[in-house]
Amino acid sequence: MFQLYSFLYTIVFVLMSPVFLLKGDKYKAGFKQRLGGIPDFHNKDGRPVIWIHCVSVGETNAARPLIDKILKLYPNYRLVLTTTTKTGQELARKLYADRADLIFYFPFDWQWTVRKVLENIKPNLILLMETELWFNFLRESHKQGSRVFIINGRLSVKSFKGYLRVKKTVKRVMRYIDVALMQTVEDANRLLQLGIKKNQVKITGNFKFDQKPDKEEDILTVYFQERFNFSENSPLIVAASTHEPEEKWILEAFKNVYKSNISKLPRLVIAPRHPERFAAVEKLVQETGFSWVKRTSTVGFEDELADVILLDSVGELRAMYPLAEIVFIGGSLIPHGGQNFLEAVRHKKAVIAGHYMTNFQAITKDFVIENALLQLPKLNDNEVSKVLTETFQKLLTNDEIKDKLAENALVLMKKNRGATSTTLEYLKPYLQVQSNVVRN
């Protein structure tokens, strides 16, 4: 079955090759590393190695508290970090360039590529953020003797249904996972139905409730405030991690708000999810007639006057949240599944999300029930701008509703903290044992 998996993986890879070429840097970045071409890492001093894999920016950010604690409590470990996306790679290098022993792109899931990397690194422990079941990687890791953990695990309904189609193979793959530390009961139950043993699954909660600002973020927030001069008289709306065509709808709604009779006209920050779309979104902003600037533009007097600010940078969105009054969560007006909204909640902000929040289904449901998140109904394309306009106006003109939404969200977030510490407790026996192991 693994041979069939590898064959199908190769077919998909070949079929996707034109996309890799057309999309440019997004897919070509780290291509050599993805084929196993990483620097020589052979562990000559015998120190234990921990490999932490984060898919993209969200997982890299979420893993920060755990990584920081592991490095503090177990300084003898060598840290290896991988990501799948270019944006995740850039953030990982920014955060851990001076503390990780190696940062690179996760290898393509062929037996020969993953084996080549594993033989080079020889990790004692492998921590996979969320749930990426790469069949060959998991089998080869098990063969080599690495202990494999899923941490902050989640398994969406869509992914679960996909794995059910090859349940026999997935059940076999489950044998290669030592422990799965899952976010919710629902996530754990889906994994159990795929064949993992009950004693291998624990429920720890969601790391994203534990995220805290760091010094660099605070400094960047001060910089943004000084540069753009945000004020209460012009409340800031942040459109976070947006996808096409959400920017078009948001800009239309923003224009409608400007045409209304509200006393305080807002300003807007748009932060597209993917850097390769910065130019396209810039063109949309230009066509609105609003005054606007880019984050990466040269600093000038127009920064303080701009109605719209395009955040065309990577890893800086979190620093913009403290300055906002309202945050819209991107990827939620289309069937993408939504982006993480807890980073905005942490700063006590009123948060709006669209109907499609399947990537965060459990916590979205909890927040909506507690009046801690304003979720829009399922809308037709021609309805979105109108409903967004009404929602922005409602929050901009009624501080009581806006503030209560933000307050409820912060209370609920504090209530759910602790996943990082719980995860570390489950990992502690393995971390302590491996500290005494010398790998050849």
Structural commentary:
The protein is 47% helix and 15% strand. The mean pLDDT is 92. The protein has a seven-stranded parallel β-sheet with strand order 3-2-1-4-5-6-7, sandwiched between helices. The chain contains 20 helices and 14 strands. β12, α16 (342-345) and β13 form a beta-alpha-beta unit.
Helical amount among residues, as a percent range?
A: 40-55%
Major sheet size, sense and barrel closure? 7 strands, parallel
Radius of gyration: 23 Å
Range of strand content: 5-15%
List low-confidence stretches: none
Shape, principal axes of CA atoms: globular
Separation, N- and C-terminal Cα atoms: 31 Å
Short description:
The protein is an alpha/beta fold and 440 residues long. The protein is 47% helix and 15% strand.
What are the key terms here?
single chain, 440 residues, alpha/beta, seven-stranded parallel sheet, 47% helix
Topology:
Blueprint: H1 2-22, H2 25-28, H3 31-34, E1 49-54, H4 57-62, H5 64-73, E2 78-83, H6 86-96, E3 102-105, H7 111-121, E4 125-129, H8 135-144, E5 147-153, H9 157-164, H10 167-174, E6 179-182, H11 185-193, E7 201-203, H12 215-228, E8 236-242, H13 246-259, E9 267-272, H14 278-286, E10 292-294, E11 308-310, H15 317-320, E12 326-329, H16 342-345, E13 350-353, H17 361-369, E14 374-375, H18 381-397, H19 399-415, H20 419-435
Parallel strand pairs: 1-2, 1-4, 2-3, 4-5, 5-6, 6-7, 8-9, 8-12, 9-11, 10-11, 12-13, 13-14
